[in-house]
Predict the 3D structure of the following.
Amino acid sequence: MRPISELVYTDRFVRELPGDPSRENRTREVLRSCYSHVTPTRVAKPELLALVPEVCELLDLDPRPTPELVDVLAGNRVVAGMTPYAACYGGHQFGNWAGQLGDGRAITLGEVTNRAGETWEVQLKGAGPTPYSRRADGRAVLRSSLRELVCSEAMFHLGVPTTRALSLALTGESVVRDLLYDGHPAYEPGAVVARVAPSFLRFGNYEIHTARDDHATLRTLVRFTLERFYPHHVHAGEPDIASFFDEVVRRTAFLVAEWLRVGFVHGVMNTDNMSILGLTIDYGPYGWIEPFDLDWTPNITDASGRRYRFGNQPAVAHWNLAKLARALAPLLPDPTALQRSLDAYVPELSSLHRHSMLRKLGLVAHLETAREDDELLLGLEQLLGAAETDLTIFFRRLAALDAGDAFATLRDAYYDGEATPAAARAQLGTWCRLYRARAAREGITDAERRERMNAVNPLYVPRNYVVQECIQATEAGDRTALAKLLDVLRHPYTEQPGAERYAAKRPEWARSKPGCSMLSCSS
Ligand code: AMP
Ligand code: MG
């Protein structure tokens, strides 16, 4: 383990890709470039709120905070070997081409190669303006930075592909945000989150060059991407773009199926927020399904169109992949292969989703039970919609189902508790009988089924109101709440004595409270 100044820095992104010749940190269009050199802007008074030891380990970084490390993680110091930059990308936002976006407040400090030979990009978010900041300030507030840190680490421990979070630091400066976009701007504490991933490349990094007919830069970036992250799609020095795209399609389908498994709603699946590696990226107004609702979106900006609602994520990912295909098409003599991969997305996603839902029930797909399974899954969806049902608690309680009364076992999952209507109780009873009969055909005991189910159905997820409470405690000066929450979320599938409140149903006060059920992009 080494101090931050002694890590092994490589700067392949900067060395191998065309960069912006200007070093002027002024908002502008940046052409024929994948990035601009820019350094973080100093902050007044850094205070480290969290340093994640597992992520330090990925970098071979000594997890003991030193003044030097705190300075680096808040953006006040760049150590030798780092070549900080902001990436240039575009994107489709809410269905429309938005032109150049780019890292408006994220700055990659450098790439670290660890002893295992893995390379990790270390990026600060909220580190000050860049040439891509447009009219914004390049900063981030504590609440959204804490949300990013908590959720990316929770996702990792849930087994969902994601970028990681290394640290969270207060800047000692205030940032003005109009939380609900209703003309009430207020001062909030500023923060910087350091995040880590093999790469933060997004669909939008490719789209921008195609939109500008700059096929040379596009080609260089695609070659770089394959050589670095998809070397198995490079044959005799030639990138096989069609097979690379096919893998991106499959990874994206897997990612979305995983979001559905755990009840995650990204909230702003614009193409600039879609990772080329199939990772969950850019945690903004995301949310977790508490009462099951396919139509729920946490993002108030999305409240009218509901484009990014829970149940629409498979379709939006497909749409986004089509935009990526269009961006890559100019590099292929015959783009029909891209279309074939796009067409394969729908059956791939439904098969992944079906298997994952069966796994959530402790079942395995068998040919002879296929029809029965389809009916069971359809019945499950109807059941979950029949009365307000907590998705996470439902599956944990269902694991405990035995020959006894189904409602008594599952009561906790119902928001109305004892007041749950008789019709919904009856529906539950009927479905549970079918389910138990089907489970019996697996030839496993109730205990074995419970074990299977508890390994894929989390007990602890970063519930919207739980994270909001953690934000409020941290803002009020409590320096233990965040560490406690992170600790519980390290073992999301294991029941932890004393952690009951993190697994509890959303309380009534949180039903329509900003930060709990409604989130804004104002971050
Ligand atoms: P997002 O909706 O967070 O994915 O951001 C969309 C675009 O807006 C990206 O290019 C961001 O870098 C940029 N952006 C968001 N917030 C800020 C900010 N406070 N300052 C500068 N750029 C920002
Ligand atoms: Mg983004």
